[in-house]
């Protein structure tokens, strides 16, 4: 009964997170679609490089306050005050460091204009640190409704401001000032939606640091692993290449960031409720993987086969060089469900150091490979992107080994969640290819027909796979029962009407 209630709360939390993501990302996508027609790839490149540097130093000052508060069995005022105060102190120090190193980073990347950009960016973490820590109580209770309303309100307010600045300034400053305004509104809004008023306290800094010392390292190494490619491209290639890479990455990863990732927060919060039941914890993790890959695998294959149509319709003709980059980057989504779930579980079990070692290996592999390509005189963005995709295979293998070694989950059980959806996805890929050879409408119609055809091919084939494997795989039995339950609910509603 307790587990059923927990699953219900997690599901509701996921749906509110999903609603928040869809609404805010819909606004964000519309904003991006407008901005890429106003600004040049070079502007996105400058903004991307600034955000990489900013986020890196923010990671170094991040002590995992959110996860520390969510994980704690008892949420006292002293706990909230100490977490809020420590965050402010470290983010203030972070802002000073960013301002101090701005000239050196600009020289290293060979972009002099980054100096002033980073000076402005240095105030962003300081502002964000003052956000009301009390809103984490919503997450502890798996109540994401007020957080959803806040995120949507912030996005709706910042959207016209950013577009207006882009039309006026016609450069990267519009993107950066938009980020600054977003932080200010987010802080103000956090005090509007929650009555808690934090006060300065240093009493539990020691306890928080004992929890967070590995979190700081893990968050930093994880960020470096995911962004070192774009940072090195900023040094090896022109800024417009970084802009192409970053915008392609945003659109390539939309299925994961907008559908799967919203479940992460509620998934992590739910672990506290089953922390003493390892079997149930593992079952929840594997169910998450199975559902995630039902969406990620066809999305990755679909984006890859439709790369030219997506770029032409969504991004515009001047962005067509991004098409092969978009297609290749979509394949990186195949590692994300494994990685994000492992992060949540190991963080909860206070085994974050294992994540650090995985990240360090990948950072060295990506950095070393990119440097080797540059030394060989390679200047094509597609070549660097292809190498990045090859390395993700290594990353997936490392994650599977970690699941087996640390959590005792058989590799084959996790691998089936990834491989089984690939069979119908390959058929879908072939079907879309054949369709594109036969239709010759305007690009937007070709894209729409291809998406519909892909869904029509993949969905029934995947249902057959679920039915075929439900006796062998508990997670597929769970999916089968879930589908039957949803179908019965829909049938009852139709009959009632």
Q: Could you describe the 3D structure shown?
A:
This protein has two domains: 210 residues, no CATH class; 245 residues, no CATH class. Helix content is 82%, strand content 0%. α13 runs parallel beside α17. It is globular, with a radius of gyration of 23 Å. The mean pLDDT is 83.
Characteristic key phrases:
single chain; 497 residues; mainly alpha; 2 domains; 0% strand
Task: Sum this structure up briefly.
The chain is an all-alpha fold and 497 residues long. It has 23 helices and no strands.
Give the topology string: H per helix, E per strand. Answer: HHHHHHHHHHHHHHHHHHHHHHH
What characteristic shape results from the CA principal axes? globular
Largest sheet, in brief, is: none
Mean pLDDT: 83
Number of strands: 0
Work out the helix count.
23
Computed CA radius of gyration, to the nearest angstrom = 23 Å
Strand composition percent: under 5%
Question: What's the domain count?
Answer: 2
Structural class: mainly alpha
* pLDDT < 50 runs, ≥5 residues: none
Q: What level of helicity do the residues show? A: over 70%
């Amino acid at each position: 009964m307790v587990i059923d209630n927990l699953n219900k709360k997690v599901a509701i939390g996921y749906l509110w997170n999903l609603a928040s993501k869809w609404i805010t990302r819909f606004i964000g996508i519309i904003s991006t679609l407008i901005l890429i027609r106003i600004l040049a790839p070079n502007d996105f490149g400058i903004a991307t490089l600034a955000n990489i540097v900013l986020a890196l130093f923010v990671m170094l000052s991040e002590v995992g306050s959110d996860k520390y508060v969510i994980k704690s069995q008892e949420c006292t005022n002293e706990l909230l005050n100490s977490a809020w105060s420590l965050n402010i102190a470290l983010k203030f120090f972070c802002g000073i460091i960013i301002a101090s190193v701005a000239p050196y980073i600009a020289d290293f990347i060979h972009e002099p204009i980054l100096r002033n950009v980073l000076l402005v960016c240095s105030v962003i973490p300081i502002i964000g640190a003052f956000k009301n820590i009390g809103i984490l109580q919503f997450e502890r209770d798996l109540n994401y409704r007020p957080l959803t309303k806040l995120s949507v309100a912030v996005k709706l307010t910042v959207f016209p401001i950013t577009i207006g600045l882009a039309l006026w300034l016609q450069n990267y400053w519009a993107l950066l000032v938009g980020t600054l305004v977003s932080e200010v509104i987010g802080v103000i809004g956090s005090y509007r939606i929650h009555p808690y008023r934090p006060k300065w306290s240093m009493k539990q800094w020691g306890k928080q640091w004992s929890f967070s010392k590995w979190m700081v390292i893990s968050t930093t190494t994880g960020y470096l692993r995911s962004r070192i490619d774009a940072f090195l491209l900023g040094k090896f290639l022109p800024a417009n290449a970084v802009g192409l890479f970053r915008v392609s990455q945003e659109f390539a990863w939309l299925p994961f960031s907008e559908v799967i990732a919203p479940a992460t927060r509620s998934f992590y919060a739910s672990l506290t409720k089953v922390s003493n039941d390892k079997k149930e914890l593992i079952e929840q993790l594997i169910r998450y993987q199975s559902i995630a890959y039902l969406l990620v695998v066809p999305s990755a294959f679909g984006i890859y086969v439709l790369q030219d149509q997506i770029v032409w319709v969504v991004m515009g003709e001047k962005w067509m060089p991004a098409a092969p980059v978009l297609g290749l980057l979509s394949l990186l989504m195949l590692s994300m469900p494994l990685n994000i779930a492992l992060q949540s579980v190991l963080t909860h079990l206070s085994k974050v150091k294992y994540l650090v070692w995985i990240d360090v290996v990948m950072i060295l592999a990506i950095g070393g490979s990119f440097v080797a390509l540059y030394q060989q005189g390679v200047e094509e963005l597609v070549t660097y992107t292809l190498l990045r995709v090859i390395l993700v295979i290594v990353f997936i293998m490392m994650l599977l080994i970690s699941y087996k070694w640390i959590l005792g989950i058989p590799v084959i059980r996790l691998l089936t969640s990834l491989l089984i959806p690939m069979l119908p996805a390959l058929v879908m890929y072939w079907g879309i290819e054949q369709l594109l050879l036969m239709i010759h409408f305007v690009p937007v119609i070709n894209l729409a027909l291809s998406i519909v055809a892909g869904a029509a091919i993949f969905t029934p084939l995947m249902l057959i796979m679920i039915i075929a494997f439900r006796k062998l795989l508990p997670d597929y039995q769970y999916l089968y029962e879930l589908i039957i339950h949803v179908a019965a609910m829909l049938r009852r509603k139709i009959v009632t009407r």
